[in-house]
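User: My instructor asked us to take a sequence, write out its structure as tokens, and then describe one feature of it. I'm not sure where to start. Here is the sequence I was given:
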Amino acid sequence: MEFLYSQNNLLILVVAVLSGIMLLLPAFTKNRNGRPIGPSEAVAQMNQHDAVIIDIRSADQFKAAHIAQAQNVQMADLESRSNHFAKDKPIVVVCEQGRTSSKAVATLRKLGFDKVFSLDKGLQGWIEAGLPVRKS
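Assistant: Let's start with the prediction itself. The structure tokens for your sequence are:
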């Protein structure tokens, strides 16, 4: 019990607890915002469950290359256009490198969509996997 009352030991204990919390925090926020899925799982969601693909990149980026059947919806328009998506179908959100799609996933989850995923590594990961893209 003396261990807890020593000022040096108490400081070490506080630092250890805070370090543990900081290490675990990303795992909790990632699960809340939707689990990222790889390109092969995204294809499976599209083929088996008729998943909706939402590309949140700019219109110019979308025209340069996008996944077939993807819908280009800007982040600013996501809430207003969400009524066009069925809540019972999976949604895969695509950005350029897989970093900003988590914001869109969080927005869709707040709007009541349960099956929302982020494409891991974004369109770049899709292309690296050798999967086809379209140009508009």
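For the description part of your assignment, you could build on this observation: The longest strand covers residues 52-55. Try explaining in your own words what that tells you about the chain.
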